[in-house]
Amino acid sequence: MVNADINIMEHFADSDELSMFKTSPIQNFIEFKWHSIGSRHHCLSAVVHFLYVVLLVVYVLEIYIRDPNEATSSNVGAATPAATVP
Known about the structure:
Helix content is 57%, strand content 0%. The protein is mostly helical. It has a domain at 8-65. The chain has two helices and no strands.
């Protein structure tokens, strides 16, 4: 029997009875929900956030920090005019 109109997590969130969270059934239910849904969602979100930050740092370094006259990978090791001997 399922009642789609009732969400038990909403009832927990709206309740002023904080002592109910100390009961074993409620703690078990919250732990079950965390392991079945929450941990996967938060881990995936953390990985996506970390990749976003890394890409943002690389972008800022390349666009705003790096000197455009600096040697690039295509001409690394090539002789510069000052280093050539006539």
